[in-house]
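Troubleshooting entry. The earlier prediction with pyridoxal-5'-phosphate gave an output that would not parse, so I re-checked the input for stray whitespace and re-submitted. Clean input:
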Amino acid sequence: MNPKIWLSSPHMGGNERKYVTEAFDTNWIAPLGPNVNGLEEDISRYLGDNPVSHVAALSSGTAAIHLGLIVLGVQPGDEVICQSMTFSASANPIAYLGATPVFVDSETDTWNMSPVFLEEAIKDRLAKGKKPKAIIPVHLYGMPAKMDEIMQIAQQYEIPVLEDAAEALGSSLNGKMCGTFGVIAALSFNGNKIITTSGGGALVSKESAVAEKTRFLSTQARDTAPHYQHSHIGYNYRMSNICAGIGRGQMEVLPERILQRRANFEWYKKAFEGINAIQFVEEPEGYYSNRWLTTVLVNHDNISRESIRLALEAKNIESRPLWKPMHVQPVFNGAPFYGDGSAEKLFRDGLCLPSGSNLTEQERQRVADEVVNLFN
Ligand SMILES: *Cc1c(COP(=O)(O)O)cnc(C)c1O
């Protein structure tokens, strides 16, 4: 059997161990410490000053979305608008809070939230007597959503935006970083993301009070008192100083990782040049994707994305269908949905190819050979 080729595996830069060793040497083995503060500063600096980002390092991206919705005041019975085409972690925190997700379809330029159906959803929910509490657009696979249009609609109807930037650290739109559009954004450092802390995430906000409140809620919401005094329900969501050490090392190599992921995309595009049935999603003008995963759409009478996936699997190569939209997931059965079937079509035809920044030339060639063979 050929060695396994993973979809997206961790890729250490080298200095991660130095930060982790420092944590051991100084006994900062806790969900606080110099690496946690340092990582927050690294991320803030990386996101730039348009506007300045305040960062709270957390145990996961899911925790960031959960606390973000709490800070925005989402309560049981509320409605929250969410992109349908996404990973379930974008929507699950809505359910944690006893609120209802209202799902919005994708447009076909970026595969993200359609501004047209977003506005339709807002108008219809308002007509039904309920104003949505928040909007969650996602930058899928690193491609920025149409944030100019989405922010304009959000401002017009005065609904806050919580950007799910879990897949899009380093992506930008007209030079403005993903994660700096919404009043709140969530980042993820899970094992398969563009950089990883093994597991982890961060909440980003342009308001320092929001980051401050998030840190408070993520460390059990202790009031200032010598004894344990609580006026709020707290959570245990802070990032560990060990994981943050990995993150500090990873931040040093993030620019390189983005170039490596983007090189994968260009490489696959060239390798499949002769196959008309395979299409790539291009960056609209002004859009810059970190190309976290290289994705393709398969349009062929006899070869489906599933036949490609199975052929790769038979050769010990991991690939994956695009996210199955939330509005067709059994767990969200009955949730309101606004759209025209675009996300379902993307799910039917779309495949994620092995995309790690640590893929070798030979590994990419193994993937391409299998795919090209199928079409010959
Ligand atoms: C990974 C991911 C998350 C969740 O992040 P975790 O750190 O795994 O909790 C949320 N949304 C999207 C779109 C993701 O890809």
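This one parsed fine. Residues 216 and 222 are 7 Å apart (CA to CA).
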